[in-house]
Write a structure and sequence with these properties.
alpha/beta; elongated
Length: about 475
């Protein structure tokens, strides 16, 4: 399956469900309490993160998709913290605040990245189901997908009313189910139970064939559009009526914390479907996103650059020859990861040892090296008739194979000034006996605060000299 990165900015998603605040107390431990055989944690940092349905909405917004959230909170400091962090991330918040009921808070005490204790502060909400349904129906016209993020805390008491309203509006409904009665999700477009939740409904599955058979029966019974079973280290299984089962392997390189992985799956699915992707493609993207999030501590949102880089890695396009638009996206992702961009350019007609050494030195000036190559017409103008010896496609293919080079792009002008103005590298590098002020584009780079560096030449290495020797011998 060939993956691509969707345009999430035109993919509005409406999320309704149980919101909660995930609070983390971080600190060091150096002694055992004299009062009981437990470690004493000296709290040095307090961190609040949106949890539950709020984490789903946050993940959707982090991907760049418009997210709207409906939920229930108290009228307390925890609700204020949730509202502030969600709105700062671009989520449109519609909370019903209940005066006598506290916002659900899950407090975790951590030391050296290890969770020592979790304390839950929660009461079941006395939900005004009609008010929730009214909010959903009012906001459905602005959404392309509806997500029911159900943690069984009481915010969702009118599942069928919401599902039927969405169906009337032509909006797909995705549900992350909880509890032992999946009948409340009847008619949903897709539900996403994990394996233990699925087996609690259909019974233990002896193997994949058994899982597929029981899943098919469940879909028929509940009139579901599709069923996605997340299976931890065994990946995911997508079932659709009339289609072969799609089994996707887990993508995690290292599992650090599975908290919030289900939220990441359904949020990525929702945003991808809202962006117009088909279901198998959306599931494959969600699988990649889940592989990223389990390598993080606690509930965490996946950003668009993180997912895009995972897609590039999956397709083997993280490096190599790129068009300008692709290159600008790749550079944006690299900068989002704190990487320094180095730029150099040239004809590179016949690759020789001097080129290789120079490019290795250039790459050492930062984290990513962009190599801009003159096209054939500009080489002819610069070097004269009979040049280039190798076409631009062949030159770029050879250069892309060098370990020092991340991205190769061509340009048609005699100088790369237009590229420099668009790429805005952190470092412009040139080889030779130039003074820095003689480097083409130095003024452009310096104007926005970039650096210009000149590297030395490798002795007795010249493409023109090589060409002349060949011609003399012929």
């Amino acid at each position: 399956m060939k993956l691509s990165m969707p345009r999430f900015d035109q993919a509005p998603v409406l999320v309704v469900g149980d919101v909660m605040l995930d609070r983390y107390w971080h600190g060091g431990t150096s002694r055992i309490s004299p009062e009981a055989p437990v470690p004493v944690v000296k709290v040095e940092q307090i961190e609040d993160r949106p949890g539950g349905a709020a984490n789903v909405a946050l993940n959707i917004a982090a991907l760049g998709a418009p997210a709207t959230l409906i939920g229930i909170t108290g009228t307390d400091e925890a609700a204020d913290s949730l509202t502030d962090s969600l709105q700062a991330a671009g989520v449109a918040v519609h909370f019903q605040r209940r005066a006598q009921q506290p916002t659900i808070v899950k407090l975790r005490v951590l030391s050296r990245h290890q969770q020592l204790l979790r304390m839950d502060f929660e009461q079941a909400f006395d939900t005004d189901a009609e008010a929730v349904a009214s909010d959903v129906e009012r906001l459905l016209s602005t959404a392309k997908v509806l997500v029911l993020s159900d943690y069984g805390k009481g915010a969702l008491k009118n599942h069928q009313v919401l599902i039927q309203a969405a169906r009337r509006a032509g909006v797909p409904v995705l549900a992350d189910p909880k509890g032992k009665d999946f009948g409340i999700y009847r008619g949903a477009s897709l539900i996403t139970p994990n394996l233990s939740e699925f087996e609690a409904i259909v019974g233990s599955c002896a193997d994949e064939a058994d899982l597929v058979a029981k899943g098919a029966a469940l879909m028929q019974e509940l009139e579901l559009g599709a069923l996605l079973v997340t299976r931890g280290e065994h990946g995911m299984t997508l079932l659709r009526p009339g289609h072969q089962a799609l089994h996707l392997p887990a993508r995690a390189r290292e599992v650090f914390d599975v908290t919030g992985a289900g939220d990441t799956v359904i949020s990525t699915l929702a945003a991808a479907l809202a962006a117009g992707e088909d279901l198998p493609q959306a599931v494959a993207l969600a699988n990649l996103a889940a592989g990223i999030v389990v390598g993080k501590l606690g509930t965490a949102a996946i950003s668009a650059p993180e997912l895009r880089r995972a897609v590039q890695r999956e397709q083997g396009s993280e490096r190599g020859v790129l068009g300008l638009e692709q290159l600008l996206v790749a550079i944006e992702d690299a900068r989002a990861h704190g990487e320094k961009i180095v730029f150099t350019n040239g004809c590179f007609d016949i690759l020789h040892a001097g080129h290789v050494t120079y490019l290795e030195q250039a790459r050492a000036q930062g984290d990513r090296l962009v190599l801009a190559v003159n096209d054939d017409a500009s080489v002819s103008r610069l070097k004269g008739p009979g040049r280039p010896i190798n076409s631009v496609e062949r030159r770029m293919a050879v250069l892309a194979g060098l370990g020092a080079v991340d991205w190769v792009v061509s340009f048609t002008e005699d100088t790369p000034e237009r590229l420099l103005a668009q790429i805005k590298p952190d470092v412009l590098v040139k080889g030779g006996d130039y003074g820095i002020d003689q480097v083409v584009g130095a003024d452009i780079v310096r104007a926005y605060g970039g650096e210009v560096r000149v590297l030395g030449l490798v002795e007795n290495s010249s493409t023109t000299a090589i060409v002349n020797r060949i011609r003399d011998r012929s």
